[in-house]
Amino acid sequence: MDKLNDPSLLKCHSYINGQWHPSDTQIAVTNPATNEVIGYVSDAGISDVELAIDAAKVAFKTWSAHTAAERANLMRKWFDLLIANQQDLATILTLEQGKPLAEAKAEIAYGAAYIEWFAEEGKRIYGDTIPAPANDKRIVVIKQPVGVVASITPWNFPNAMIARKAAAALAAGCTFVGRPASQTPLSALAMAELAERAGIPSGVFNIVVDDDAKGIGQVLTQHPDIAKFTFTGSTQVGRQLIAQCASTVKKVSMELGGNAPFIVFDDADIDAAVQGAIAAKYRNAGQTCVCANRIFVHDSILEEFTHKFSKTVSKLTIGNGLHESTHIGPMISTKAVADVDNLVNASVILGAKVTLGGSVAKQGSHFYQPTVLTNVTNDMPIAKEEIFGPVSAIISFTDEDEVINMANDTEYGLAAYFYARDIGRVWRVSEALQYGMIGINEGIISNAAAPFGGVKQSGIGREGSKYGLDDYLEIKYLCIGGI
Ligand code: NAP
User: Fold this and answer.
1) For the chain, which end, N or C, has fewer CB atoms within 10 Å of the first or last residue's CB respectively?
2) Does 291 qualify as catalytic in the annotation?
3) Which class for 357: exposed (0-12), middle (13-18), buried (19 or more C-beta within 10 A)?
């Protein structure tokens, strides 16, 4: 942490109602690249979370009464500070999460872009007038903020997952109680410090850090003063949280797991497909929800694609994310490494072939070798489950219908990718894939202007874009009579 230009960005308590709240117990935050403890953060209890909800409820009265332009001005200052401190925020992120510094810097810019974008879009929350069925009546529709929003976010994007939610919530006029993953609280607390410096009023943006996801999750999903609950994480946990939200009939948004197909057709630009697959697979050591999970390649180009792809993967260097040469950082935990290794081994027993990598890396127990498996079939564990590690599973196919059926044969529906040049095929496949987002001749698809989200068991709702505001707004119908 002596690498920071501004060490005061490093906070060690929850941020509630504009104040830093110490507690008697501490959570150790470790650097997954070195296993060293990089800091301790106060472990908040249920009473702290309740304090944050109360503060957000009080702040909602004044924040929702601000004009959209007033909110936008404060959010713009927050954006400017995030960008001005990009290097420090990225360093903190890499230290607690592990991803290469260049990726961490990109995440800070990506997260901040949502704050900038929604600050502007908040000025365009338009209502409607609707022709009434009688001359003495008028129908008007207005949109209002839902109220206090609570979020739980994962460790894989410790800044951007919070930014995506808080940006839309604050722009809509809602107040926010965020609970970051216990492995990566420092990025969230640094965001809170900069929100305070930007002048975001007390109680509007609160961050509560704890080591009791289940207990705090119960409060955030069941508290009557929370109007909306938004979650990013696994489908398994998302299902439980939706059920918990039912007790108070909360509005929910869920950004859950994925099992993205990445299809390379025989008319594809193979070199472009190789580059796209590398970006869609190995970013963040394969620990993103939109990672290519199954790479389907037409059998007429299988050999060429596999050769070029494996050659490119073999050049990826493993190491500490702070080192400039690193492409693949550590995974978040040794359990995550073991889970990936088990998936690889289970699939090898069933006939998958290890073309590259295939085991824990010599850099240490948090590192897994960039791996390419061939001879994979769509019913192997590596194709059925979300890999969440730097492993590519290559499956061959012969025709379009067959590959669409295989691609859709999953409970997930987050992101899908395909490479093809035939325009008829581009439309047919885009319409047939049961996914919320499709990258066509493109491996990186997420940005603030576009609606991010999944179908099937990958989620409910959208983040980013004009559609992203809807999740934080209620529609109110006014019927004006006696005219
Ligand atoms: P996870 O186990 O579901 O954890 C995500 C968050 O939920 C963490 O903050 C975790 O806290 C918390 N949590 C865990 N159990 C909980 C419970 N019973 N009640 C309340 N909160 C609970 O997910 P993960 O394995 O860490 O993260 C990876 C998953 O997130 C993948 O499935 C990935 O696809 C998904 N993801 C989706 C998106 C998207 O936008 N669709 C984006 C990124 C990641 P602790 O960490 O403190 O345990």
Assistant:
1) C
2) no
3) buried
